[in-house]
Amino acid sequence: MAETNTAAALQNVYKTPELWQKIVFTFLCLLIYRAGAHVTAPGIDVQALTDYFQSQTGGGGLLGLYDLFVGGGLSRATVFALGIMPYISASIFVQIAGAVVPTVDKMQKDEEGRKKLNQWTRYLTVALAAVQGYGFALFTQSLPNAVANPGMGFILSMMLVLTTGAIFVMWLGEQITERGLGNGASLLIFFSIIERFWPGILQTFNFVSTGAVAPLALVVLAIVMVAVVAGVVAITVAARRVMVQIPQRTMARGRMREATKNFIPLRINTAGVMPIIFAQSVIVVPGAIAQFSGSPRAREIAAYFDPGTVWYFILMAILIVVFTYFYTSIIFNPVDLAENLKKQGGFVPGVKPGAKTAEYIEQVVERVTFPGAIFLTAIALLPIVIAKIMNVPFQFGGTSLLIVVGVALDTMAQVQQHLLLRKYDGFMKKGRVRFRGRQATSGGF
C-alpha cells in the first residue's frame, strides 16, 4: 500500500510540468555546487590540512561544525571552502539588526526596504567572505608543510579564490530560491551534511567488521537514531495553538463577512538550530584562546571545557537555554502579531485586544519555549554521551540532524503545495469549461 502511494505521488510530481522543472533545476544547481566543492584551491597540500583536522578537531568544535556545513570543503581547502556560510552569517546579522535598529525594522516591513536590505546582505557577504578567506590563508600558513609558497601572494590569491567561490555559491542559492524548489541556502547546507553522513556510516561498519565495536552496540545505536529522528520530527512540527475569533463584519457594498474561528500556531522550537550553533561558537572560545596564546594556564582552563567533561555539559546546557530564549525574542514579535490581529478585528477569547493580547502571547511563547530548549539541549549533548558509553566513532550531531529534518519537512511541504495548487487549477478549469458549456446550451434555446 505504501509503495503504491509513493509511486502515485512520484507520478503526480512528474505529471506537473512546473514542479518537475523546478526539481530538475534544483538538482542541477546542487550538482554544480557539489562538483565545485571537490576542486582544491591552488598552493595547498590537502593531506597535511586533512591530517590536522582529524588530529585537532576530530570533527568537533567550531572548525568541525563549519566543515560539516560546507560538506568537508574546509578540510580539503576547495574553492567552495566557505560555502554558503558567509551569506548565512550576513543574513543573521541583518535579522538581529532589525530587532535592535528601528530603521532596519521599518525597512523589513516594506517591499522596497526589503530589496535594499537584500542588497546590503550581499555586500556584507562579500566582506565576510574576504575576512574569512584572509583568516583561512593565515591559518593554513601556520600549519607545517601545508602551503608550498607561503607569503603575501598566497594570502591574496587565497582571499580571491575563496571570496569568488562564496559569491558564486550565494548566487547559486538565490537561483534555487527563485527558480527552483525550496530555500536555496538551506538546501545547500542540507546536501553538504547528507554527503558527510555516508563516510561516517561506512567507518562505523568497518569498526564492527574489525571487532573494535560490538554488533550489539551498533543495533542500540540504530534504535537510538530512529528514536531521535522521530523526536526531532515531532518537536519540529509541534505547536501550541492559540484560538482566535474574528467577528462578523459589514464589508463594502453591504456585504457581510461571516464570523470565523481560527488559531495561531506557536511553535515549540521557534529558534530552530541557531541556539546550538551560538552555544558551540561560545564554548570553543577558551580552546581557541589557549591554542593561539600558547599559555599553559590557558590550556588548563580550556581543558575544563573539552567535550565530555562535566563543565562542558553544564555550560553547554545553560548556553543553549539562554540562546533559545534570546533568538526566539529576536525572530518572534508578539506586539506586531497582536497589532495585526487587532487591525483584522480578531481577538483571543477572554483577552482584551492590543497590549493585553501581546502580553498573553508572550507568556505562552515563554512557556512553550522551555521544553523546546530542553529538547535542543538533549539533542546537542546526546551524541557525546552515546560516543562515550558505546565507544562508537560515528556521531550523528544534533545540529546536523535538526537541519536535515527541518529542510526535508519544508521541501516536502512546498511539493505538496504545488500539487494541491495543480489540482485546484484543474478543478477551476473544469468548472469554467462546464459553465461555458451550459451557457452555450442555454443560448441555443
UniProtKB/TrEMBL annotation:
One of its GO terms (cellular component) is plasma membrane. It comes from the Bacteria. Signal peptide: none annotated. It is found in: Cell membrane; Membrane. The chain crosses the membrane at residues 77-100, 120-139, 151-173, 180-198, 218-243, 264-290, 310-332, 368-386, 392-413. It is a multi-pass membrane protein. Keywords: Cell membrane, Membrane, Protein transport, Translocation, Transmembrane, Transmembrane helix, Transport. GO terms for biological process: intracellular protein transmembrane transport; protein targeting; protein transport by the Sec complex. Belongs to the SecY/SEC61-alpha family. The central subunit of the protein translocation channel SecYEG. Consists of two halves formed by TMs 1-5 and 6-10. These two domains form a lateral gate at the front which open onto the bilayer between TMs 2 and 7, and are clamped together by SecE at the back. The channel is closed by both a pore ring composed of hydrophobic SecY resides and a short helix (helix 2A) on the extracellular side of the membrane which forms a plug. The plug probably moves laterally to allow the channel to open. The ring and the pore may move independently. Component of the Sec protein translocase complex. Heterotrimer consisting of SecY, SecE and SecG subunits. The heterotrimers can form oligomers, although 1 heterotrimer is thought to be able to translocate proteins. Interacts with the ribosome. Interacts with SecDF, and other proteins may be involved. Interacts with SecA. This is Protein translocase subunit SecY. The lineage of its organism: Bacteria, Pseudomonadati, Gemmatimonadota, Gemmatimonadia, Gemmatimonadales.
